[in-house]
Amino acid sequence: MLNRSDVKMACVQMTTARDPAENLAVIAARVKSAVAQGAQLVALPETCTYMEKSRTAMQTRLERQADSQVLAALQDLARSEAIYLLVGSMILADEKTDKAVNRCFLIGPDGAVEAQYDKIHMFDVELEDGERHNESATYQAGDRLVVSQMGDAATGVKLGLSICYDLRFPNLYRRLSEAEAEVIFVPSAFTKQTGEAHWHALLRARAIETGAFIVAPAQIGSHENGRETYGHSLIVNPWGRVIAEAGDDDGVIMGSLDLTMVARARRQIPSLQHGTDYTKPDGKPTQD
User: Fold this and answer.
1) Is 277 within a domain?
2) In a domain, 19, yes or no
3) What stretches in the chain show pLDDT beneath 50?
4) Is residue 52 domain-resident?
5) Pairing with 149, which of 83, 106, 111, 203 sits 20 to 30 Å away (CA)?
6) Helices 20-36 and 69-81: crossing angle, nearest 10°?
7) Order of strands across the sheet with 113-118?
8) Which of 140, 204, 217, 144 shows the shortest CA–CA distance to 179?
């Protein structure tokens, strides 16, 4: 039974390499460190199992979820440490198309996959420094929101899932909070340029808007595929205050979450109850 006023969660910050075996060793060490500090749930960043150099190289690594030995190893890790493990995302073969999926998993203390979520919003951008990303060419976007639970029905915590670029779409987070999510995860591999400009502001805004805890494990540093990621994993409370932050290095951060804050924040600022329908300047209704 969880003590809802003191739920201990950890974020792993790492620099994912190309080799899944190398990354699994890092993940196992960081998870064990977090568990030694009392973590009941450990959250890993986006693309935590590998980051290949190119789309072609990635295609050679793709495997179906049912066949993934890497996922099986992560399930074994959660089981052996008797924790909830949030696998920020893995790149897997889509079962219905010739594309990949960017898929987040919540694994329970018994090693079972309790929930999975496919990233909905694709990062198709061209930054001022010439950095380009075109995720929709490679990945099949998800089409459903996911809220799961940590613990039993009486004292459990409702968990909302999202991934990285989803962070820029506040309506997604409003829907998660309307579905009673109390903690929302944002595992990420934010670019250095966009992270420096927007990471803290967006995460704090999503916490304030939803009255939820935001837990955002992140990639950091220079990767073998040439990407540079921002780091600064964060845990933010429902009032928008940062309660734990990583810096520019690999490591683990811990946060003690008082879930009673969620109801208090939503009661004090009841914006979730005050939504309304709007019309566009042309008088037509808006579309979600």
Assistant:
1) no
2) yes
3) none
4) yes
5) 203
6) 10
7) 113-118, 100-107, 84-93, 41-43, 7-13, 251-257
8) 144
Domain count, the chain: 1
Structure-token pair, residue 40 = 């009941």
pTM score: 0.94
Task: Note the pLDDT tens digit of each residue in 38-97.
Answer: 999 999 999 999 999 888 888 889 999 999 999 999 999 999 999 999 999 999 999 989
Cβ neighbours, 10 Å, residue 242: 16
Verify whether residue 192 is a known catalytic residue. Answer: no
3-state SS class at 22: helix
Of these residues, 11, 48, 119, 209, which one is catalytic?
Answer: 119
* pLDDT the model gives residue 214: 98
> Is 279 a domain residue?
no
Task: Give the CATH number of the domain where residue 101 resides.
Answer: 3.60.110.10
Residue 81 annotated to the active site: no
DSSP-derived 3-state class of residue 134: strand
Alpha-carbon torsion 110, 112, 113, 115, what sign? negative
Q: Indicate which residue of 11, 46, 104, 192 is catalytic.
A: 46
Q: Which of 216, 221, 250, 220 is nearest to 233 (CA)?
A: 216
Contact 104, 116 (CB under 8 A): yes
**8-state DSSP, 286:** P
**What integer pLDDT is reported at residue 276 of this predicted model?**
66
Position 59 scores a pLDDT of 86
DSSP 3-state of 193: helix
Which of 11, 48, 104, 164 is flagged as catalytic?
164
Closest by CA to 108, choosing from 66, 141, 77, is 77
**Annotation marks residue 119 as catalytic:** yes
* Amino acid identity for residue 248 in this structure: D
CA 146 to chain CA centroid, Å, is 12
